[in-house]
Structures are given as structure tokens and as C-alpha cells.
Design brief:
24% helix; 2 domains; alpha+beta; 10-stranded antiparallel β-sheet; 5 helices
């Protein structure tokens, strides 16, 4: 297995890591289905973990909460304004009695990169109030238009809290069934997607979703693979870590 020296030193000696970083993934988006008529362009993911639920027809129980993201498309604010966005979000969290998580990112929309806010909420009935609060704090949204279902590459910035459960295997403290392991290099999405498909097709355990991620440290970026798997074991994750690093090494 191959790791950069900085990655090896940082990840080997830390059981718990908190850091800013990113997640890069592909999801199927369309207009948010809502009884409320938004004037803003709000999209939802139809396939939040495309390697897990829909591609393998995993049934959902009534008590299971399917992870779901809402994407509010921005007119002016971008990743360059992340500090300002965080400050606005801090103020809004003091003004609305609903738990939510909001991070800034960008996604593909009609062959154009557009900025967005990715929103998780316990109660999406409060989404209109949340959007109105962001507008009141000077955040401008693109106006509503019809968007037919399409696949979009999405890049969001987020704060990571991850806990080691085995050497070079980390569990997300805030998100259930979500894991990370370091890889030796970043690659463009098309290569990552092709590599991920090849690994899945040559392994009997196929019900999981893979995305790219990274966390920032003093020496640069630690590249990660994010795995969503409700039946993950340390053995499964260790196998995936080894396979990804072997295949990535072959790309050189």
C-alpha cells in the first residue's frame, strides 16, 4: 500500500481528527417536490447514495430515515465567500428554532458550475422560513425554473469530525454509516468513477456508495475516499482501502 509521507504521519498518529474539507460526489437532482411554492431555485437529490439505495433496490422501512439533501442555488455567493456564509449561518441558527446543517458548495446545472447551499434539516416543513432568513441576511438565490432530473457532480465544503476505528480507517462522528480512508492521490471524477465501478464489479459485497473527500492540514490536503455502507465492517473497509490504493498506484 502506498501513502504520501505527510498522510502517513498525520493519519497514523491521530485517533480523532477535526478539520475543514470537501466531499465530491455525483447525485441525481431535480426540483424539490414541495407543497410550498418557492420563488427560489431549490433542488433535491433523488439518489443520495447512488451505489446503495436505488441501484440495488434496497427497501426502506417506515422507521428508516433516508439521508436527503436540499440544494438552494445561489446567484452571487460562492466558495470564495465561505467565511461570510458561515457567519450568516451562525446568526440564523440563533434565529430559527429548528435544527439544520448548511454548507456551501457548487454543482453542475445545465453545463454551468453554480454555487449552492446544501441543507440538511430535521423538519423540512421549516425550509421556507430558513430560505427567507438567508434572503433577509443578504443571500441571493437564483429564481425558480423547471429542472428535469439529471446527474450532477457536486462539491461541498464541510467540517469533518472523524474517529479512527482501525489503522487508517475512520468513522464519521456526525453521520451514521459513513467512513473514510486515505488514498495516495487525487484524480478527476471520471477516473475515480471508473475505478470505483471496477472495484465493485470484482467484489461480492456491492451494496455501498463511494465518493471523493479530503481534509485540510498544515502541509496540504489529505485525500480520502468516503464510503457509505450500512453493513460495513473493518474487514470490508480495509479491503476497499487496499484495493483503491493498488488501483490508484497503477494510474501513475
Amino acid at each position: 500500500m502506498c501513502h504520501t509521507l505527510n498522510t502517513f504521519i498525520i493519519m497514523e498518529h491521530k485517533d480523532y481528527i477535526e478539520s475543514l474539507g470537501f466531499v465530491l460526489k455525483k447525485e441525481k437532482l431535480t426540483n424539490l417536490a414541495s407543497d410550498y411554492k418557492f420563488n427560489e431555485l431549490i433542488l433535491e437529490d433523488l439518489d443520495p447514495f447512488p451505489g446503495f439505495y436505488d441501484h440495488f433496490h434496497i427497501p426502506m422501512s417506515e422507521t428508516e430515515q433516508k439521508p436527503r439533501s436540499i440544494f438552494a442555488i445561489l446567484k452571487t455567493m460562492s466558495l470564495d465567500n465561505m467565511d461570510d456564509f458561515i457567519r450568516k449561518t451562525m446568526k440564523i441558527k440563533m434565529e430559527i428554532p429548528v435544527k439544520f446543517d448548511a454548507v456551501i458548495g457548487q454543482l453542475e446545472l445545465q453545463n454551468t458550475q453554480v454555487p449552492c447551499i446544501r441543507i440538511y434539516m430535521d423538519d423540512y416543513a421549516a425550509l421556507p422560513d430558513l430560505i427567507q432568513l438567508y434572503s433577509a441576511h443578504g443571500v441571493a438565490f437564483l429564481p425558480y425554473k423547471t429542472v428535469k432530473p439529471y446527474s450532477s457532480l457536486i462539491n461541498v465544503r464541510k467540517y469533518f469530525s472523524i474517529q479512527a476505528i482501525a489503522p487508517f480507517i475512520y468513522k464519521d462522528v456526525d453521520m451514521a454509516d459513513t467512513y473514510y480512508f486515505p488514498v495516495d492521490k487525487f484524480m478527476d471524477w471520471s477516473k475515480f468513477e471508473a475505478l470505483s465501478i471496477a472495484i465493485r464489479n470484482n467484489w461480492e459485497h456491492k451494496v455501498y456508495d463511494a465518493a471523493q473527500a479530503g481534509i485540510y492540514c498544515k502541509s496540504g490536503v489529505i485525500e480520502l475516499v468516503r464510503i457509505y455502507d450500512r453493513q460495513a465492517t473493518v474487514e470490508h473497509l480495509t479491503y476497499l482501502r487496499e484495493r483503491y490504493n493498488i488501483e490508484i498506484a497503477r494510474l501513475r
